[in-house]
Amino acid sequence: MTDLPVSDDNLPGRLGALARVVDGELIIDLEPTPEVLHLGCVRTSVLSYLVDCVTGIPLQRADAWTLTTDMTVRAAAVPAPELVVARHRVLRRGGRSATARVSLVDGDGAPMGDGAAGFTHVAHKAGDPPMVSVPIEEIVDRFGTLPPLEVPVRDAAGIRVIDAAAGEVEVELTPALRNLAGTLQGAMTALVAEAAAEDALSHRADAPVFVTDLDLRYLTRTGAGPIRTRTDVVGTGADAFAVVELIDASTDTVVTLVHVRGTVVP
């Protein structure tokens, strides 16, 4: 299960997500804390963790890695509610790939976002970390077992700003950011891209920007790292968007491509 905590300092496991099963359906909840907010709103990268888990865990297989190939998250720039609820619906389940859609609502059932994720099944190979097969009941119990974050999630991830105006940031590929497959966890990838884009878009707008849209294409597994970003901003004003490439500096390989939109928040 690539989304389960790898260690006691596993960052995704400290975002505050909880899991429950209702009539056989996995549901992921989040009670937002200040550490996962930006400008008073739940970070879209944090919502991407809910999207990744609520879709990826039910689609796991015992004989292969189930790896995220692409993910889209749209979020409204609204004040953080007391509760976020993520529920999924499988749109396609094939032998080699699958796609699911996710609804994100607050505790009263009001929509606050939407997401989708695609997955590929990759056979376990000699030399890979061991596969872990965990019953759904045990998966539910594993959520919420790690201590909550004590600092903002960007700081907890160790994201360093190289050039804010250019959207250049860097992060070491520490165990806290990896999944069980040994690669950068999907939502942590989203966080790095979000950080680069919000810096670049905020500089372009000369005002604080909240990232509302993340479109991620996971191209290859990350290696030794560090991970660096290269960002292009297209357009001006409210219509500007960012294109972020995440690059594994150990191989100079683009590992993820992300298209990002944001909005100015007073």
Architecture overview:
By secondary structure, this protein is α+β, with helices and mostly antiparallel strands. Helices cover 17% and strands 40% of the residues. It has four helices and 14 strands. A twelve-stranded antiparallel beta sheet has the order 1-2-6-7-8-5-11-14-13-12-10-9. Helix 1 runs antiparallel to helix 4 (186-205).
Strand and helix layout:
Layout: E1 17-22, E2 25-30, E3 37-38, E4 41-42, H1 44-56, E5 64-75, E6 84-93, E7 97-106, E8 111-123, H2 136-142, H3 153-157, E9 160-163, E10 168-171, H4 186-205, E11 209-218, E12 227-234, E13 241-248, E14 253-264
Antiparallel strand pairs: 1-2, 2-6, 3-4, 5-8, 5-11, 6-7, 7-8, 9-10, 10-12, 11-14, 12-13, 13-14
Helix pairs in contact: 1-4
DSSP helical segment count: 4
Largest sheet: 12 strands, antiparallel
Based on Cα principal axes, name the global outline: globular
Which strand order does the major sheet show?
A: 1-2-6-7-8-5-11-14-13-12-10-9
Please, what is the CATH homologous superfamily? Acyl-CoA thioesterase, double hotdog domain
CATH class: Mainly Beta
Number of strand elements: 14
Structure class: alpha+beta
- Please name the CATH architecture: Beta Barrel
Outline the low-pLDDT stretches.
none
Oligomer designation: single chain
In angstroms, what separates the terminal alpha carbons?
40 Å
Let me know the average pLDDT. Answer: 91
- Beta-strand percent range: 35-45%
Estimate the helix proportion, in percent: 10-25%
